[in-house]
Amino acid sequence: MNRAHSKTKRTAFVVAAGLAAVTALAACSSSSGNGGGGGDSGPVTISYGVWDDTQGKVMQQIADKFHESNPNITVKVQITPWDQYWTKLKTAATGGAAPDVFWMNESNFATYASGGVLANLSDKLKGSDIDMSNYIDIQTKAYTFDGKVYGIPKDIDSIGLWYNKALFKAAGVAEPTADWTWADMVAAAKKLTDPSKGQYGIVAQSAPQQSYYSTIPQTGGQVISDDKKSSGYDTPEAIKGVQVWVDLVNKDKVSPSLQQMTDTDADTWFTSGKAAMIFEGSWAAAEFKEIPYAAQNANVAPMPKLDQPGGVSNGLGNVMSAKSAHPDAAWKFLQYLGSKEAETAQADAGIVIPAYKGTADGWVKAFPEFNLQVFVDALKNSSQYPSSMNSAAWQDPIELEFNKAWSGDETAAQAAANSAKIMNDALAAEK
Amino acid sequence: MTSQLVPPVEQGQRRPTPLPPRGTKRRSLRHGDRYWAYLLILPTAVGLTVFSIWPAIQTFYFSFTKWGTFGGHEWTGLDNYAQVFHDPELLRSLWNTVIFSVMTLLGIPLSIGLAALLNTKGLRGVGVYRALYFLPVVTMPAAIALVWKLIYNGDTGILNQFLAVFGVDGPHWLSDPATAIYAVGVVSIWSSLGYNMVLFLAGMQSIPGEFYEAASIDGAGPWRQFFRITMPLLTPTTFFVTVITVINALQAFDLVYLMVGKASPAIEESQTVVYLFYAKGILQGDGGYAAAIAFVLLALILLITAFQFRVQKRWVHYE
């Protein structure tokens, strides 16, 4: 082989190989747009971005109902799976091609509102059919940024103590009641733990809302200060709110380990009868109902009491794009989504607790097998889901940090101190 | 970046003829031929420019910026690079990537062995075996990851059930920080085995049969033939496979993403450089920093590949 020839080829190959590396990376950030077009006078089609399959079907029914009274406006529901929803939305929003109307959650709301992606609804609300006082207060607050409304509350959730009636009966333990304290729960969990059967009293998952977000308000602590400028993790109250969970896993050993809960997810431990209790959300009702064993054996009680009543609620909002090609049609649809009729339809379909006050009955009745009133009652002690302008910068890193407490590599106090630092640094970087 | 890209092209244009004629005589291209030649490379050239070269140049530019949440960026000079070299997470991910690369390299002797076995004359059902070993290559990574996750499950997985027969209490392979990267590496070896095997088979079959005949007349047994004839004459293939394997390993992402995932307690001990790029750029929205990570990786790949090409003279035998 000729030297000069092989050298050229070699250089080309090295460069090509390296280039392939960068290209593979750059490809992740390429954007895709979706077209608008057409004036608002004739028939228009608007898009409605959502991430949930089951809910998507109900959203389409609501959209079809809207179309009946607004024949000029067709709404196309776009379902993007949760794993890709935010990545795709961010890319689309950057390119000015977000769906006309879409779902928003509390963690991301301030990021999108401050980024100019969402339409400011405050002026539109005057003289419209929407009265923001109709929605559960913390949800109205959650979708207000800088004193202006950017989202119409869609739904709300809360956390309860789900338990397995059959396992309680088999162990001769009385089922949880509304008066249960944390100590009562731990005592029951000990009796329900049976290593020989691979059975645990509770599955203490490390997902924030189902663990420390729920307990920190009950110990008098705070995840984030009211002005959203500092973290509350390094207070004794917050550390206690984390400690109670870590103890279930590492001290009392009444829960599977973090590794066990990673290999087999927490819900599966519960729905397969391998764990007798789990802190899980109102949203789980729809999932558990579909699993025959869980539908038959599961029920739900209020969270056991620590020092004071408390908890956090997360809920979605419907928002519209500031760059929608059909702002009038989008606003019309948004108003319909926020109407009592549409919100009630969500409850009756059994998908969520609507954010519209007094429309939860349909949801409670949709699951006669579970005592879902527990979740509706929990709302009165619920506070807003912790979030800030750029929640993404601290939420995931903090989950990893607390995982170290769950796995026993750090104490709850160490993990809380580190988390406070991560969070305070991130909050300081927000302008 | 631009300066690295252009030279080979320029060289080619400056010296169209010095390249040795390969086999047949080559006429200089007539006008019409040249037109066709350009027309034929046009689709690839356009695709390459739009999807590879331009994004790479942009990525290089972005590595000196800090991103706004929704578009927009400010020039921050070398800030990202200064941060890169003091980032314990990046150092850890580089180490993870090295472990992963070394592991996948161990798959190469395995592929050679397999290829040699399947190249045995008179072996029955060769087609079936070849298809079986090649199957993982044409299986979707998502499916592979799912099945291996089930196998590796610490409580219900078949691997630990198997180990239990011998009284061994297996770990939670994918969630234990001590084992996760190795567990993923094994899957990577397994899924690339078939592809490498096919390349080695092709290499073996291009070795002239006379060599073996001559060797057996001289009294060389099958082992001796393998090490004295097959291995040396296979080195160009071995070299090619090694280079590709290393590049692929340095860019490993999908198996870590699918099998370990961001919420796992083992993610810090198993995330590769590209996974960290994804976490920083996509999950945490720090595009500028992610671009800098991408270029550190590029530099690393260029360096290692150039090194491999330099040392190849010592061990690769072209006929």
Automatic annotation (TrEMBL), chain A:
Per UniProt, which keywords does this protein have?
Signal, Transport
Q: What Pfam families does this protein's entry cite?
A: SBP_bac_1
- InterPro entries in UniProt: SBP
Q: Name the coiled-coil region(s).
A: none
Q: Which CDD domains match?
A: PBP2_TMBP_like (cd13585)
Query: What range does the record give for the signal peptide?
Result: 1-26
Q: Does the keyword Transport apply?
A: yes
Give the UniProt family note: Belongs to the bacterial solute-binding protein 1 family.
What PANTHER family does the database record attribute to this sequence? MALTOSE-BINDING PERIPLASMIC PROTEIN (PTHR30061), MALTOSE_MALTODEXTRIN-BINDING PERIPLASMIC PROTEIN (PTHR30061:SF50)
Q: What is this protein called?
A: Sugar ABC transporter substrate-binding protein
Q: Which organism is it from?
A: Cellulomonas alba
From TrEMBL, chain B:
Segment Disordered: which positions? 1-27
In the record, the note on similarity to other proteins reads:
Belongs to the binding-protein-dependent transport system permease family.
Which Pfam families does the UniProt record give? Answer: BPD_transp_1
Classify the main location.
membrane
Q: Where would you find the membrane-spanning parts of this chain?
A: 35-57, 98-119, 131-151, 180-202, 233-253, 289-309
For membrane topology, the record states: Multi-pass membrane protein
| Positions of the ABC transmembrane type-1 domain | 93-308
- Record key words, sorted: Cell membrane, Membrane, Transmembrane, Transmembrane helix, Transport
PROSITE patterns listed in its UniProt record: ABC_TM1
Decide whether keyword Transport is in the record.
Answer: yes
According to UniProt, the name of this protein is Sugar ABC transporter permease
* Compartment(s) where it occurs, according to its Swiss-Prot or TrEMBL record: Cell membrane
**Could you name the domain of life of the organism this protein comes from?**
Bacteria
Q: Which organism is it from?
A: Cellulomonas alba
Ranked from the top, the taxonomy reads: Bacteria, Bacillati, Actinomycetota, Actinomycetes, Micrococcales
